[in-house]
Every structure is written in C-alpha cells, then in structure tokens.
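Below is how a single chain appears once it has passed through the pipeline. First comes the sequence as given, then the structure the pipeline wrote out for it. We keep one example in the README because the format questions we get most often are answered faster by looking than by reading.
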Amino acid sequence: QVQLVESGGGSAQAGGSLRLSCAASGYSVSGLCMAWFRQAPGKEREGVAIIQRLTSVTYYTDSVKGRFTISRDNAKNTLYLQLNSLKPEDTGMYYCAAHYIFPCNLGTAFANWGQGTQVTVSS
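Resulting structure:
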C-alpha cells in the first residue's frame, strides 16, 4: 500500500506561483503512475496532470497546459506540481494519486490517494 502526503498549498494572488509536493512511502515513485487532481467547491473532481511510470511521459488537462508542471524526484520519493500564472479558477483542493499500472491516464481508477492540500487564488 502506498501512502501519500501532500503539502505546499496556500494562498496566492492571480499570476502568482505555488509548488505542491506529494511525499510517498511504501513504494518508489519511479515505479508508479502518479497524478494530480483537484476539486473546487461544488464541482466534480478533475484530473490536472499525470506522469507515467517507466517513461515519465506527462500529460496535462487543457486548462493548465503551459502553466503547470508535474515532476518527480526519485531520490526524495516525492511528486511535485509547479503552479505558475495562477488564476482564481485554479482554486480548489489538490490531491495526488498513484497507481501501479502502465500506461495510465486521468480516467484511471486510482487506488491510492493523499488527503489533499488547499490552493486558494485571489484576483
């Protein structure tokens, strides 16, 4: 079982930046498909970005392309999401998720989830 703990959320103004971290234990992030999801109040959870195991190929949902970057540090066993050029619509709870399969996509039924970290962007 993989344990995931997110951190790094907070408040930012529009145009600002934040970096989210997701520390993993119980399994190496290099061997996992890992993703970031977010959920705004009153809205369904949406997939934001994904990084494949083995190949490290990344994929982003259209609304964050060119602004967010997903990456991982195998030595620290940590997943990151760099959020730049933030917009108020980026506000929400951000969750990291992990799965053992390859390949995976944002529609995959991820079995392992963190508790989330809140991002609030003001205009």
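The mean pLDDT is 96.

See the next section for the split statistics.
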